[in-house]
Write a structure and sequence with these properties.
Elements lengths: L1 E9 L5 H15 L7 E6 L2 E7 L2 E5 L4 H11 L4 E8 L6 H7 L6 E5 L1 H9 L12 H19 L3 E3 L13 H10 L6 E2 L11 H4 L17 H9 L16 H13 L5 H6 L4 E5 L2 E5 L3 H10 L5 E5 L6 E4 L4 H13 L9 E4 L1
Parallel strand pairs: 4-5, 4-7, 5-6, 7-8
Antiparallel strand pairs: 1-3, 2-3, 9-10, 10-12, 11-12, 11-13
Helix pairs in contact: 5-6
The chain binds iron/sulfur cluster (SF4).
Iron/sulfur cluster binds next to helix 5.
């Protein structure tokens, strides 16, 4: 949408400044350096020089930082769309719900398969658990780039904060991500923008750098002030990506190592129960009624499901079934229940 008609330029006048702008525009367009915010068109003997509303695609996790990144851009009258990812390890649902408060359109992108590859073999390594944050960000940004090119976004923004996460948000990591994503010119981190190299849109004055933030470090003080100022609702920090949880990471690495030909169902199983290995066979024990029901739902051909006929947990055996594995699963069921003297089990294979 055209929002500012800045100049009516009569070709036959001596308005050198406008002439230069127009020449620059044509030159840039020919060189593929198209300025996304500037539009020129002829109208009779005049050329209309106009600016369209800048369109930003913002990577949105549902958390406060990315919510603020969107809000800061909206404050500059930039048209914002939330890009939400989903994978085997995180869903898009909470973020979709949380994006509603800013009234922005949402794009959901399923990166499950590519993300799993990155989790298995991250070029920049894992963080404290199974989180491959640098490569995960890179994957998301490359995906965002494809979407931006296809749908005509001028700018990609994230809620990254300099120094907030020692592994993935230190200055080197942010630079590396920016360079390797191929988005050097148009990747904006509104929360730390004033501490980072300006993007091309800031340099051209199309985004007011002064109205962006200079947040760094792990203190959330400034973010909380801004949340209050803009009356934003946000989830408490910490309930984020499960890959950052050490216990989950251990279960995942065990799966990669012991069942390298695992399937999607095996990944879903990681979210429930106590996990035990008997050689390369996994036994999962439900921790409560809800998990027992989940295990029943996740049962598939080749598995063995064992349910006690007394109050106690359900066990699912995934992998090679053998008398030894069944005996082991029964022992585990007994360990986590108070069995009666007669111990009967239902076995489904
Ligand atoms: S915390 Fe999870 S979703 Fe976020 S970058 Fe790291 S691996 Fe990716």
């Amino acid at each position: 949408m055209v929002v500012i008609i800045q100049l009516l330029y009569n070709i036959h006048t001596e308005c050198q400044e406008a002439k230069l702008e127009i020449m620059l525009y044509w030159y840039n367009t020919r060189k593929g350096l198209h300025d996304p915010a500037i539009r020129l068109r002829r109208s009779g003997r005049s050329i209309i020089y106009s600016m369209k509303k800048i369109k930003a695609l913002v990577l949105f996790s549902g958390g406060l930082d990315s919510l603020l990144a969107m809000k800061l851009l909206q404050e500059q009258d930039i048209s914002v769309t939330a890009l939400i990812f989903k994978s085997y390890f995180f869903s898009s649902k909470k973020a979709e719900k949380n994006a509603k408060q800013l009234n922005v359109p949402v794009i959901v992108s399923d990166i499950s398969k590519k993300h799993l590859e990155v989790v298995k073999n991250p070029a920049s390594g894992h963080g404290k658990a199974a989180n491959p944050c640098i490569d995960c960000h890179l994957l998301m940004l490359r995906q965002a780039k494809k979407i931006a090119e296809k749908r005509g976004f001028d700018l990609i923004a994230t809620g990254e904060v300099l120094g907030e996460r020692p592994f993935s948000q230190n200055k080197n990591a942010l630079e590396k991500i920016k360079k390797n994503s191929g988005l050097s010119e148009i990747l904006l981190r509104p929360l730390s923008a004033k501490l980072l190299e300006p993007t091309i849109l800031e340099e051209k004055g199309l985004i007011n750098r002064e109205r962006l933030e200079a947040i760094s470090g792990r203190s959330r003080k400034r973010q909380l002030e801004l949340a209050k100022k803009y009356k934003l609702k946000f989830p408490t920090p910490g309930g984020g990506c499960i890959l950052t949880e050490k216990e989950f990471g251990k279960k995942l690495f065990d799966l990669f190592e012991k069942q390298p030909d695992f399937e999607e169902n095996d990944l879903k199983l990681l979210f429930f129960g106590r996990h035990f290995w008997n050689n390369n066979t996994k036994i999962v024990i439900g921790r409560n009624k809800e998990e027992n029901e989940k295990l029943k739902k996740l049962f598939q051909k080749g598995d063995i499901l064992i349910e006690p006929e007394f109050p106690g947990p359900t066990a699912l055996i995934s992998g090679k079934s053998s008398k030894e594995n069944i005996a082991k699963a029964k022992t585990l069921i007994l360990k986590y229940s108070k069995p009666p003297s007669k111990k009967l089990f239902k076995i489904k294979a």
